[in-house]
Write the structure tokens for this entry.
Amino acid sequence: MMGARVDPSDRALAVARRNVAASTNCVFHAASVDEFRGADPAAVSEAARAELAVHRDADTRVRRAAAERARGLHHAEQLFGTAVFRDRAGDGTGIAAQDGAHAHDGDGADIAGRAGGE
């Protein structure tokens, strides 16, 4: 005889309740897909905006710093990455560049725009 079957969602809810026990703004629902009425779209939008606000300042700083670094790069490096990145990533053939070799785009120039051999 098999033991009592425990619904995994009951276990998941128990873990979630423990993890956010100190929070007062959490609501838990145990329902089948057919029974669940879903979340209020306005409440979901409000929660998403609140989450974005938490990260907005840090995200803006990171993006501005990345943009400043990119302004100093050649246009091809802005698109395809710097030589250090390309050397680690390889040239698209599945073989990483060796000994300072550069990836070429077929016209005799590497992707940074330098003529072959430079």
